[in-house]
Design brief:
199 residues; alpha/beta; 7 strands; DNA polymerase, domain 1; two-stranded parallel sheet; Rossmann fold
Length: 199
């Protein structure tokens, strides 16, 4: 799903209310755990309390959150229990957004509540691979933020960058970059499992 507008709005409102530099927040907010953003831009605040308030508000206000074109088709092309979501958002935020967009909530959902170290640390994606029961080197990650790309790469995974939140140049650490989800095609084969093509 595309939550860029919602994330921008929530962070800018928070920054103005707290007297924090909006642009400093926006430079790091996408793809990074809320608590870690606050610790970096406003170390004088109670990061845990602030993060809980921001994420609770975001979880119940989905204005601007939309399904990305091709998301439903992509998810349906992958067998159940062979894909998951690894997000920097909290469990309630991720679950509410998935339901809002009428996307299935996968069995494997790794959120900020499940890790000690958020992206760009590899822990979130390594936990996702572990819960899927797959070697990290066999995983393919689709990411729209530099912090997420760094996290997956540090975990030994291949990454497709999706230029939705950031420009393609900002995603250059990915193995490949696409403009739209429809460019990613998954095929199921009996002997080789799944193959992924970029159109």
């Amino acid at each position: 799903m595309d939550s860029t507008r919602s994330v921008d709005r929530e962070w800018r409102v928070w920054a103005r209310r707290k007297g924090v530099d909006e642009e400093a927040v926006m430079a790091i907010a996408h793809g990074v755990r809320t608590i870690e953003v606050i610790q970096r831009v406003a170390p004088h605040l109670d990061a845990k309390a602030e993060a809980a308030a921001i994420e609770n508000h975001e979880a119940h206000h989905q204005r601007g959150v939309i399904v990305m074109a091709g998301a439903v088709e992509l998810v349906r092309s992958i067998p159940e229990r062979q894909w998951g979501v690894v997000t920097s958002g909290s469990r309630i935020l991720a679950s509410n957004r998935l339901r809002h967009c009428r996307l299935p909530v996968p069995e494997v959902l790794v959120t900020s509540d499940d890790v000690r170290n958020g992206k760009p640390h590899p822990e979130p994606y390594l936990k996702g691979a572990e819960r899927l029961g797959v070697n990290p080197s066999a995983c393919l990650v689709i990411e729209d933020a530099p912090a997420g790309i760094q996290s997956a790469r540090a975990g030994g995974m291949k990454v497709i960058g999706l230029a939705s939140t950031y420009a393609p140049a900002d995603l250059r650490e990915a193995d490949a970059v696409v403009q739209r989800l429809q460019q990613i095609q998954v095929r199921r084969g009996e002997a080789q499992g799944m193959t992924v093509s970029i159109l």
